[in-house]
C-alpha cells in the first residue's frame, strides 16, 4: 500500500517545488523575484585639482553601495512584498576610465581607489590655450556588482567623472640683478628669472629643471669659431624653487643668470663694435616633457606660423668703453652705469657671488643674416678608423637651422628652417655620437642650406658620407691626426685653394703659445696678400696647463715644416703631445673694415677663459686692440700690393704689348696667392 504525503498547494508549496527542481541551476530561483533597481550610488573624487606632468592623480570612489529590489508574493497570492537587499560591489569589475592627453589611448584602472601617474603631452596637438601649456585629464568611474549580464540583479552604472589640469610653464619673467664686476670694471650684468603659467599664475613648479639653449647667434661679423664656442658654452641649468625662482644646479648658492664680456664673448665683441644680441631660450628637462616636445621652448606659442619668435629672450651687448659693457636683457638694463664696480674693487667677493656667470655669454645681433654654429675639434680620445665604423648614433638627430633677424617694422623674428646649415650639422653629429668635430668655416658658407638627418644606429662613417652627399660637396670631412675635420666651403674661382690647404713654410722658435701663434700669423701674411689671417687663443692658461716644452719653461719650442697650414697646426699639436689641443678656423667680413679676413684659434675645450686678475682683463683688451692694428697693417700691405700691380699693368698697357699686360697680371696674381 502506497502512502502519499499530502501538501496543500499553497504559494509556499509551489516555491518549494521550484527550488527543488532548480537546485542544480547556476542561479537561484529567488532571482526570478529580484530586480536590479535602484542603481548603485556613491561619491567620486579626484585630486589634486592641478598638477605637473608625471604626478599622481588620486581617484577615490567612496560610500559606494548597491541594493536590489526583492518582490515576494503574499501567501494568498493577492499581493507582493517588496524589500531592498544589499548587493555586492566588485572591486575588479568596477573601473576608472581615464582620458589622459599624451597617453596612448584610454586607460582603465580597476578598483574603487586608484593612483594614476599622468603623462606629458604634445603641446601642439594635445595642449590647451595659446601655448599648449596645460591639458585636462579626466576620469569616469563605473560601478559594477560583477554579475553576469544575463543575471536579473546585474548592475553597471557610471557614477560620474572628475578631472585635473596638468600644467607646464609658458612664460619666463626677467628682472635686473647685480652688475658683474671685475677689477673695478663693469663687464656684464646678472638677471633673475621665474617661471609661471599665464593662465594659472599661482601654480608652483617646484623641482622642475630648466636649462638654456641658444637658438641662433647673428651679428654683423658672425665669426667662427668664436660663435661656436659661445653657443656650446650655453650649458647652464637651474632647479625651480617653491616660489618659482631659480637655483643653480652648478652652485646652489646662486640664483641668477649672468652674461659677461669675457673669453669668446670678448673676441666677438672686438669684431662687432655695433654690438651683439643673444636669442636665448629656456627648455624644460623634467617630467617626460622633452620626450614629447624635443624642440619646445618655454613661451613658444602653438601654431605660431613660420616666423615664431615667441619664447626667445634677447640679450644685447654693447661695449660702451674699455671698462663698461652694457648688457640689456628683454629690454631691461641699468638706466645709468652703476658705481658699484668702481667703488668696490674687491673682485673676489664679487666673483664669489657671480662666478657662475663665466659661461661666456651667447649672443645674437639683430640683422638679416643667418649664422652657422659649430664647435672646435677635440682629441681627448683620438678618433681611429675603428671608431668610424663601430661608433653608432644612440638616437635619431634632425639637423635644422634657426633663422633670426628683424622685419620691416623693426620687430625681431626667429624660426626653425627645415634644412640644416653648417652649424646645426656639427651639433647634430656631436649629439648623436658624443664626439667633438673640428670645423673649418669659410667665408662662403653662412647661408648654405641642405636636408640632413642622422638615423638611430647609423654608423659614424655613414653619417659623414651622407653629409658630403646631401650637401653636394659643400661639407668635406677627413680623419687626420686622430681628429674628425669638416670643411664647410663653396668652391671659388677667386680663391681656388682653401686657406687651410695653402702651403706654409715655418721655422718656429718660441717659449709661449702667443709667441708661437704670432710666428704662424706672420709667416702666412708675409706669403699671401689676398685675405689676411689672424691667429690667437682665448685660453688664459695655455702656457701653465699646456706648456710648449717640459720643465721650467726656459727652453724654446722648435718646429720646422713646409706643409699646408692645416698640417702645420696638427704637426705642432703632435710635437707638443697633448691630445686635448684643438683648433678652429672661421672666415667672415669684418664689421670694422667691411673686408674679408680669417681667424684661426688654438686652445683646449676645457681651458680657463674667465679673468682671475686685473692684469688678465687689461691684457685681453690690449690684445684685441693689437689685433685690429695688425689687421689694418695687413690690409695696407694688400692695398699697396694691389696698387703696385695696377701700376705695372698700366705701364704694360701703354706699350701696347698684350703679352706684357697678361704677364703683369699673372705675376700679380701669383704674388697675391703666395706662388711667386
Name some characteristics of this structure.
676 residues; alpha+beta; Phage tail protein beta-alpha-beta fold; six-stranded antiparallel beta sheet; six-stranded mixed beta sheet; 32 strands
What does this structure look like?
With 676 residues, the chain is an alpha+beta fold. It has 5 domains: 31-167; 170-367, no CATH class; 371-491, Phage tail protein beta-alpha-beta fold; 492-637, no CATH class; 638-672, no CATH class. The N and C termini lie far apart (146 Å).
- Mean pLDDT, nearest integer? 81
Strand content: 25-35%
> Gap between N and C termini, in Å?
146 Å
**What is the strand arrangement across the widest sheet?**
16-15-14-18-19-20
User: Structural class of the secondary elements?
Assistant: alpha+beta
* Large-scale geometry: elongated
User: Percent of residues in helical segments?
Assistant: 10-25%
Topology of helices and strands:
Layout: H1 11-21, E1 34-35, E2 41-47, E3 50-51, E4 56-65, E5 67-73, E6 80-86, E7 95-99, E8 107-110, E9 113-117, E10 134-144, E11 156-167, E12 171-182, E13 185-196, E14 209-218, H2 226-232, E15 237-240, E16 246-248, E17 256-260, H3 263-271, E18 276-284, H4 289-292, E19 313-321, E20 324-329, H5 340-343, H6 347-354, H7 385-390, E21 397-398, E22 402-406, E23 412-416, H8 422-433, E24 438-441, E25 453-454, H9 460-470, E26 475-480, E27 483-488, E28 503-510, H10 513-527, E29 533-536, H11 542-545, E30 557-564, H12 565-576, E31 582-589, E32 596-603, H13 614-655, H14 658-672
Parallel strand pairs: 3-11, 24-27, 24-31, 29-32
Antiparallel strand pairs: 1-5, 2-4, 4-9, 5-6, 7-8, 7-10, 10-11, 12-13, 13-17, 14-15, 14-18, 15-16, 18-19, 19-20, 21-25, 22-23, 26-27, 28-30, 31-32
Helix pairs in contact: 2-3, 13-14
Amino acid at each position: 500500500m502506497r502512502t502519499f504525503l499530502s501538501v496543500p498547494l499553497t504559494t509556499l508549496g509551489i516555491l518549494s517545488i521550484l527550488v527543488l527542481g532548480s537546485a542544480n541551476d547556476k542561479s537561484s530561483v529567488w532571482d526570478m523575484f529580484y530586480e536590479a533597481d535602484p542603481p548603485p550610488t556613491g561619491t567620486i573624487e579626484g585630486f589634486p585639482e592641478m598638477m605637473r606632468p608625471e604626478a599622481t592623480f588620486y581617484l577615490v570612489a567612496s560610500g559606494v553601495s548597491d541594493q536590489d529590489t526583492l518582490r515576494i508574493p503574499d501567501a494568498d497570492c493577492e499581493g507582493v512584498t517588496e524589500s531592498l537587499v544589499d548587493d555586492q560591489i566588485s572591486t575588479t569589475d568596477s573601473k576608472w576610465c581615464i582620458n589622459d592627453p599624451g597617453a596612448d589611448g584610454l586607460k582603465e584602472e580597476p578598483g574603487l581607489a586608484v593612483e594614476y601617474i599622468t603623462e606629458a603631452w604634445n603641446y601642439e596637438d594635445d595642449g590647451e590655450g595659446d601655448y599648449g601649456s596645460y591639458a585636462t585629464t579626466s576620469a569616469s568611474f563605473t560601478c559594477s556588482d560583477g554579475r553576469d549580464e544575463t543575471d536579473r540583479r546585474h548592475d553597471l552604472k557610471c557614477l560620474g567623472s572628475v578631472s585635473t589640469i596638468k600644467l607646464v610653464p609658458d612664460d619666463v619673467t626677467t628682472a635686473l640683478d647685480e652688475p658683474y664686476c671685475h677689477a673695478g670694471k663693469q663687464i656684464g650684468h646678472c638677471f633673475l628669472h621665474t617661471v609661471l603659467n599665464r593662465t594659472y599664475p599661482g601654480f608652483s613648479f617646484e623641482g622642475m629643471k630648466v636649462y638654456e639653449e641658444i637658438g641662433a647667434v647673428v651679428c654683423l661679423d658672425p665669426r667662427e669659431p668664436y660663435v661656436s664656442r659661445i653657443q656650446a658654452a650655453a650649458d647652464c641649468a637651474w632647479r625651480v624653487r617653491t616660489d618659482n625662482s631659480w637655483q643653480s644646479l652648478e652652485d646652489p648658492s646662486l640664483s641668477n643668470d649672468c652674461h659677461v664680456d669675457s673669453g669668446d664673448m670678448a673676441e666677438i665683441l672686438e669684431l662687432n663694435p655695433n654690438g651683439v644680441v643673444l636669442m636665448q631660450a629656456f627648455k624644460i628637462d623634467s617630467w617626460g616633457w622633452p620626450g614629447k616636445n624635443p624642440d619646445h621652448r618655454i613661451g613658444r606659442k602653438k601654431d605660431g606660423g613660420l616666423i615664431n619668435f615667441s619664447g626667445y629672450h634677447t640679450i644685447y651687448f654693447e661695449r660702451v668703453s674699455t671698462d663698461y659693457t652694457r648688457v640689456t636683457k628683454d629690454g631691461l638694463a641699468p638706466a645709468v652705469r652703476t658705481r658699484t664696480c668702481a667703488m668696490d674693487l674687491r673682485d673676489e667677493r664679487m666673483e664669489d657671488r657671480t662666478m657662475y656667470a663665466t659661461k661666456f655669454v651667447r649672443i645674437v645681433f639683430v640683422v638679416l643674416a643667418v649664422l652657422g654654429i659649430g664647435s672646435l675639434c677635440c682629441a681627448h680620445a683620438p678618433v681611429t678608423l675603428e671608431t668610424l665604423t663601430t661608433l653608432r648614433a644612440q638616437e635619431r638627430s634632425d639637423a635644422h637651422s634657426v633663422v633670426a633677424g628683424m622685419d620691416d617694422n623693426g620687430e625681431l623674428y626667429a624660426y626653425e628652417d627645415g634644412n640644416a646649415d653648417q652649424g646645426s650639422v656639427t651639433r647634430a653629429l656631436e649629439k648623436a655620437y658624443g664626439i667633438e668635430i673640428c670645423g673649418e668655416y669659410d667665408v662662403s658658407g653662412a647661408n648654405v642650406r641642405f636636408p640632413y638627418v642622422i638615423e638611430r644606429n647609423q654608423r659614424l662613417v655613414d653619417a659623414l658620407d651622407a653629409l658630403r652627399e646631401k650637401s653636394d660637396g659643400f661639407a668635406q670631412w677627413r680623419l687626420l691626426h686622430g681628429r674628425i675635420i669638416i670643411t664647410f666651403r663653396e668652391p671659388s674661382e677667386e680663391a681656388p685653394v682653401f686657406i687651410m690647404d695653402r702651403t706654409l713654410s715655418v721655422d718656429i722658435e718660441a717659449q709661449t703659445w702667443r709667441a708661437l701663434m704670432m710666428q704662424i700669423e706672420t709667416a702666412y701674411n708675409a706669403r699671401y696678400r689676398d685675405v689676411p689671417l689672424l691667429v690667437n687663443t682665448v685660453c688664459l692658461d695655455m702656457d701653465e696647463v699646456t706648456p710648449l716644452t717640459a720643465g721650467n719653461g726656459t727652453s724654446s719650442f722648435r718646429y720646422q715644416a713646409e706643409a699646408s697650414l692645416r698640417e702645420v697646426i696638427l704637426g705642432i699639436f703632435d710635437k707638443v703631445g697633448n691630445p686635448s689641443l684643438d683648433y678652429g678656423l672661421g672666415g667672415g667680413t669684418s664689421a670694422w673694415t667691411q673686408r674679408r679676413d680669417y681667424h684661426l684659434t688654438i686652445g683646449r675645450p676645457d681651458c680657463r677663459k674667465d679673468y682671475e686678475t686685473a692684469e688678465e682683463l687689461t691684457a685681453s683688451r690690449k690684445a684685441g686692440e693689437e689685433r685690429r692694428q695688425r689687421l689694418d697693417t695687413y690690409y695696407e700691405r694688400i692695398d699697396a700690393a694691389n696698387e703696385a700691380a695696377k701700376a705695372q699693368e698700366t705701364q704694360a698697357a701703354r706699350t701696347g704689348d698684350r703679352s706684357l699686360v697678361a704677364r703683369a697680371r699673372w705675376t700679380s696674381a701669383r704674388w697675391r696667392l703666395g706662388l711667386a
